[in-house]
Design goal:
This protein is an alpha/beta fold. Helix content is 41%, strand content 16%. The strands form two sheets. The protein has a five-stranded mixed sheet with strand order 4-3-2-6-7. Strands 1-5 form a two-stranded antiparallel sheet. The longest helix has 23 residues. The relative contact order is 0.17.
């Protein structure tokens, strides 16, 4: 899991020793292999970070029922509501996105430290001599589909973070089936 920093200092990271040097090497990268998480996945890395940051520790050994109980607690609900009010669909490298594009909310308390944000992956994927390989597979823990997170990455131009897509047939079918449901959900929440 990448480190997280307060959003208020994220723009200053290029000046930090070690991080600044790493960011310089970013120009030399021409292939990125990454995967996604779905907002509905109990085992999403972004959710692990939120839970751990709120004092629940690294609960990777917890049962799904225990995780649901933690996620129902008021302090986790408050943190998740920041993402959910923006129709969080999923995240790549713990960078959240919704149906329309990256969630770059300055009100978010923390942000992940990664070489590429979502906009950077879009730019890299568009370069003819580069490749961004996106792997869409079920959750490695519970084996549930991550199709909710895949839908916007397949259908939304501002989220064209991949030049090559590896997707299993189950996730592909569920993404196709879920597209209309997701659009209805967004329309419903925007019209009251």
């Amino acid at each position: 899991m990448p480190p997280f920093v307060p959003t208020t200092i994220a723009d200053q990271l290029s000046e930090w020793p070690g991080i600044g040097k790493s960011l310089e090497y970013k120009k030399e990268i021409d292939i990125v292999v990454t995967s996604l998480a779905s907002s509905t996945d109990l085992h999403d890395e972004l959710k692990w970070f939120i839970r751990e940051g709120l004092g629940y520790g690294d609960r990777r050994d917890a049962s799904d029922d225990e995780l649901r109980k933690i996620d129902a607690s008021p302090n986790v609900q408050t943190r998740m509501s920041e993402l959910n009010r923006q129709h969080w669909a999923g995240d790549v490298q713990t960078r959240p996105f919704d149906l329309h594009g990256p969630i770059n909310d300055p009100d978010m308390e923390y942000t992940a430290v990664t070489l590429f944000n979502l906009d950077g992956l879009v730019r890299l994927a568009a370069q003819p001599d580069s490749a961004v390989v996106l792997i869409v597979a079920p959750c490695g823990v519970c084996k549930k589909s991550r199709s909710r997170g895949a839908i916007p990455l397949i259908a939304t131009p501002s989220l064209s973070i991949w030049s090559h897509l590896c997707i299993n047939s189950q996730s592909c079918r569920r993404a196709i089936e879920g597209w209309e449901d997701m659009k209805r959900e967004v329309r419903r929440t925007h019209t009251g």
